[in-house]
Amino acid sequence: MNETGFLPDDIWEKTFILRGLLYLVTPSETSPKTLDDVPDVVAMVIPYFFFFIVLEGIICQFRWTKGRFRFNDSLASMSHATCLRVFELIGEVAIEYHMYILAYEKFHFFEFDPESKTTWILALLGADLSYYWAHRAMHEVNLMWSAHQVHHSGEDYNLSMGMRQSIFQRYTSWPFYIPMRVPKSIRTGLFQK
Fold it and tell me: Between 187 and 11, where is the model more confident?
């Protein structure tokens, strides 16, 4: 049995991504010891995400929302996601990574115990708060909106819209995550090599 005792270990491990989408993970599962141990969660979630997009498309075609799932719009969103991943694979995420490390080296002034549940909860709340302010600023600051508006350019609101992200958005959103690096031991998977 795993540390929760709810499910057998093999089922527990296989459901990590689905549990992660609902914040049903434990601190030990989400606290990598080194940067190299940070999993590529985006790559892990892609099959599940595509499954739910296809399921949504099928339901929309056979239910009262017929016509609200446009294949061409979804294909455009998937193209955005593919383009973003290609740029990530060739190293386009470097600005986030380097600024995050720079903030750690220059400004960290206290440490949290990386094994503590309190650290895990603070990291979860801090990442969520950072995302909230970054996203709010993307809607209110013209320069940031110009990078973010791609996400809102679809005809219909559906799951595939979540994949429609601008490759330029990360150049304006990284400063909101810098406060997460002031305490030495708060780690997030936002800035991967």
Answer: 11
